[in-house]
Design goal:
This protein is mainly α and 169 residues long. It has one domain (5-168). The chain has nine helices and no strands. The chain has helices at 5-24, 27-44, 54-72, 79-83, 89-92, 98-109, 113-124, 129-136, 140-168. α1 packs antiparallel against α2. The chain is globular.
């Protein structure tokens, strides 16, 4: 039997909110967009298949809603700004030193848009590799390999940045 909508809402609200907030960087916009995501999900709930992945389905709706949001704001937001979105405050609290946070931010900024999206889906929306594959229309194995390589790449970028910051600090 298909999950009742209220159960989907309760179970995945936080993941959808973190995902959207990371993408837009504003609490006000995130609040509005998450409401829109769940409105769309409610309207389309009857189309959700019996054994489909509800979380991936919701994140796909969230992704498309954020894309639409930026398309509407296109005249006021540059592509450069889209690629340099800040992480939410909860993420920042995990780092004790400003240098660490700055190095993580600059390292994320050096990733391709697709790689940043994978990091966002994995660590902010808390999706599994299979679910990320569903959202991005790629195989689970391709995502698994990509995440492994991304973590290595980020590790190298952050380490290089921190070494540079310590030399100057």
């Amino acid at each position: 039997m298909k999950e009742p909508f209220i159960d989907l809402y309760d179970q995945y609200f936080d993941d959808v909110y973190r995902y959207v907030y990371y993408k837009v960087g504003s609490k006000w916009d995130a609040d509005d967009l998450v409401s829109e995501v769940f409105r769309k999900a409610f309207e389309r709930h009857s189309t959700l298949r019996e054994n489909s992945n509800s979380k991936a389905w919701l994140i796909t709706i969230a992704h498309n809603t954020v894309v639409d949001f930026y398309r509407k704001k296109k005249s006021t937001v540059s592509i450069e700004q889209l690629h340099n979105l800040e992480e939410p405050g909860a993420f920042e609290e995990q780092f004790e030193l400003d240098d660490n946070l700055e190095c993580v931010k600059s390292s994320l900024a050096n990733l391709s848009p697709e790689d940043r999206e994978i990091v966002n889906l994995r660590y902010f929306a808390d999706l599994k590799n299979r679910e990320i594959g569903e959202v991005l229309k790629k195989s689970e194995e391709a995502i698994k390999t990509k995440v492994f390589r991304l973590l290595k790449k980020l590790s190298v970028l952050v380490t290089k940045c921190l070494e540079g910051a310590n030399k100057h600090g």
